[in-house]
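Please check both lines for our workbook:

___
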Amino acid sequence: MSRKGSPIISIRHKPIYLNPEGGKRLKRLILAPTAALLASVMIMTACTETKKRSRTEPAEVHFQSLFPETANDDPYVKVLLNAVAHFNELNSDIKVVVDYMPAGTTMVTEQDIFKLLRSDKAPDIIGFPVSQVQVAGQENLLFDLRRVSDKKALDIPERVLDLASIDGKLLALPYAAYPSIVMYNKETFDAANLTYPQGEWTWEQFQDIAEKINKDGGSLLPYDIEALDLLAGSAGQGLLSPDGETAVGYLDSPEAIKALRWMNETYRKGSDDASKSRKTEWTS
């Protein structure tokens, strides 16, 4: 089977890809958490290569962990390893092998993942952000899953699949969901004699609390597109149209503009406060 690109299994922020050019390994689309969905795909994608193998020799699929092997105690890694072990137990003709990042790896960037996909030993499956699917697709690093899957057999909402579809090609499948939650340190709030975060908090209340807690100054709000999306969403307007086809009328909506202005003001005020704090330290 001569195919360029790599199949994937993906999600909103962290998809997973399958690379059909990953060395001489058997190219099958699998990921333990979604194995039930993709069983027919796995059978179809390797029909040619299986003829070259012994009937008793299991097909080997390499799953690239984005953690070093020393991180096996990480809860996220444990979930994946448990899923892989369960899949291998149920499928004697397929063996999923977990590959790890080099020892000492503390963070994997998008550039690191692209480097792996472009290498001669590209993994069969690897985690990948949906935001970069189009870039990887343009480089022909990914495989069109619609070539080997029955759309009707997928019980994944079409709007979710659209996130990873480029020019009619399905380049990813979701494997997890990451809800947004608020986490706070109770001791910090207790020390400042402040009430704990409430669901009805306004932006202004958040800013006021942040200033009281962060006495040294500096913004406590991430200045990125995710933060802007959350703020605009809290005002009732997303940054993209519901079908994900356009940002016109959404990214430039009054709600999004208000959110961006608030972010800028908060960020600049925090930076000014931090600068004043440092000047006080230098002159004292």
Remarks:
- Residues 254-283 form the longest helix (30 residues).
- Residues 186-283 form one domain.
- The chain has two domains: 8-170, 186-283.
